[in-house]
Design goal:
heterodimer, A: alpha/beta, 4-stranded antiparallel β-sheet, 12 strands, B: alpha/beta, 8-stranded mixed β-sheet, 11 helices, about 20% strand, globular
Amino acid sequence: MAENNVILSVQDLHTSFTTDHGEVMAVNGVTFNLNEGMTLGIVGESGSGKSVTAYSIMQILEKNGSIKSGKILFKGEDITRWPEAKMRDFRGKKCSIIFQDPMTSLNPVFTIGWQLKEAIELHTDRKGKAAEDRAIEMLKLVGVNEPEKRIHQYPFEFSGGMRQRVMIAMALACEPDILIADEPTTALDVTIQAQILELMQDLQKKMKMAIIIVTHDLGVIAQMADEIIVMYGGRVCERGTAEDIFYRPAHEYTKGLLRSIPSVDKIGQRLVPISGTPINLLNLPKGCAFCPRCDQAMKICLEQQPPETRTIDGHLSSCWKAIEEEAAAGLIDLTGPDGKPEDTSKLAEVSEKD
Amino acid sequence: MADKFTPDSQYLVQAHDMKMYFPVKTGWFHTTPLKAVDGVSFDIKPGETLGLVGESGCGKTTVGRTLLRLYKPTGGDMYFGGKRIDEKSIGGLRKDMQMVFQDPYSSLNPRMTVEDIIGEPLDVHKLYSGKKERREKILYLMELVGLNAEHATRYAHEFSGGQRQRIGIARALATNPSFIVCDEAVSALDVSIQAQVINMFEDLQKKLGVAYLFIAHDLLVVHHISNRIAVMYLGRMVETAESNELNNNPIHPYTQSLLSAVPYPDPKEAKARKRIILEGDVPSPLHMPSGCPFRTRCRYATDQCKAEMPPLTDKGGGHKVACWNR
């Protein structure tokens, strides 16, 4: 990954929520870089911390949640230190978000035009008529027919797919550098999903923005993402290019996920599910979070969290089993991010164990 | 229908020209029938799985519910094991036809223990002679779906989504049915858990010989589990075939675009794929287009499509399609 065109860099992010039952560790040390104009996919099951990671970037967490530590660098500046007023400018103008449910993310008592204009007037110099023209232009861009007429309509007069288009128009009205899409098509039907995904890819080319797409759907990720992060239990299991993740998965969880989805070439075969149930974020295990469900678990997995290792072709994973395999094949890149050799004592431990 | 429909004994479930209209108030004195299901026919053999796919609002859930007579159908003949399903017979047939619901959170009573939830159908149909037998049956059912005996005294909220769905399945199996309607039974579950439940459905079918009507919107899942698949669009059945045949050789333009729109979990394949993107949205079932319901979004639509609904015709080998142009 070239360092020069990184637009957003999340470093060792920890986010947690205080609840009556204790502290819920939703995100535990997430690190990734987002390059300009690229699409990053965050994939994981419910409770894996993928949405909370997205909300942490926007700093729109619920009241009981907060970023405990870590940095979020936007063009080199740490936005976790920004005051609220500056953040308000960041949201919408630099970075926008669209949510899963287009039914509830629009205000039912205002017209579509009013809601679009509000966002435009807040973030740009366009006021009044100019803002309205921009609203119409944006609706046209996202493929809403007769936008001049439709800006006077209310959200209930729009179908689910059309509402999601309005949300995208609103998110992109101020030409942000980053668009975060949190399960943008999960509530939509397949044929409408295909329309929306294609629209997002089209607009990305036109507006040259970066996209972070958060989803549980491996199919959507495969279609959209250049790079993928796989999350489990608030931690990053694995990150790499889409090809790395789908064709050369390293982490046992990623392998399990890919085995468990039905596909055309698995017809007539039994699916191989991941046993057990997702972990409780209230008490995370000491070792690897996936360990209780992993059929390749070793003693060290129970005791120590696996470090993130990089193979020579830049594929990162945090799995003791993968470390063992990669070390045996001589694939691990032992130069750290600063060019110096990394501490290899832990790697040695794995090979000693057997 | 002029000619009387006669049931075929090789099928367990048969539906002929099923119609279900809901009255919708459209003004002070006007009600318009919402044609949720409009003339759907299908049949299911013992121990077979028929997948029913379509987008939201196409009537697939209504088909399942009407079949079990949770709704009183507007028209059509439904048969179960050669017996006509009607007001009189349904009481005796309920035991053999069960349902598993989509939402494992709202389909279980939060005030009942697992034992009571699974035991309720046994109570209703009086399927045990004493307390001991009831308990034994419940424990057997729990074991069948992979729940521990110690879970019996717990409440639904203490379980994860996947486990709750297992409770719902155990409840459906309690009366030893030969047919289960699975209405989006795995849609609310995470991928890794979904695979567990799909495998369980397949195992139970092998073991107990139950037939399924598997209603879902996820085509990959339906293709995996079904022997045959039926595709619905706006209350009509547009295509039905063996699952592999449907997947490899879709004929109806709607099925073609539906299959091409499925995001395929393979980056090279997904990016190289030619998608047939449909224009616009599904029309409102209150204002159905004349003739073929799909014609407003169809690439091949002609005047004939506007005038007349195409019948479901056999294109060979049981592959039936309702389209004038294909």
